[in-house]
Amino acid sequence: MRPSPVRQLRRVCTIFLCLGLCACAAQTRFERLLVDTKSLEQASIFFGKPDKQAPLPDGTVRSDWLMHRTEQVPGQWVEREVTRGRDRDGFPVVYIERYFVPPHMTTRTCTLTILSTAAGSVVSTTWNGNSCDSLLSADRQNYEEMSKAKQSMQSLQEGFGPELFPWF
Predict the structure, then answer these.
(1) Rg, C-alpha atoms of the chain
(2) Cβ(37)–Cβ(46) below 8 Å
(3) I need a surface site. Which of 89, 91, 106, 116 has the fewest CB within 10 A?
(4) Are 76 and 103 in contact (CB under 8 A)?
(5) Among 12, 48, 53, 8, which Cα is nearest to 134's?
């Protein structure tokens, strides 16, 4: 027996939902940055000066970046679908419920810990919190823009020769 069109549509929607959730599970910008961090000096460029730093007995250095910020979230209207019973054909009756969420305070936290050797190369990284992406400093954003500009200038220099770009 062939499934009904509604059941087929549900299956297709379920597949797209699963694919969408897989895409959400991809690494965040913060996690990608931690993978790229190879030295304590590079971490200081990316995240700013550590809040705490201490040598450990085994010769490694523990560096901690702490962020705790409370901010006010403005009020907003929110819509959600609510299912209430079924109609006479057995299909769910769906209503759109609209309500106002008043302004409220929210807390964002992040703790990043990097263990490095005495020479400065990263041994391990750990983080915990609900807002680690906001730990990235403005210096890191400027660093990314500068490295993109440098790469594009190098490609131009390779294409036209060094005589056009003597300053680079």
Answers:
(1) 25
(2) yes
(3) 89
(4) no
(5) 48
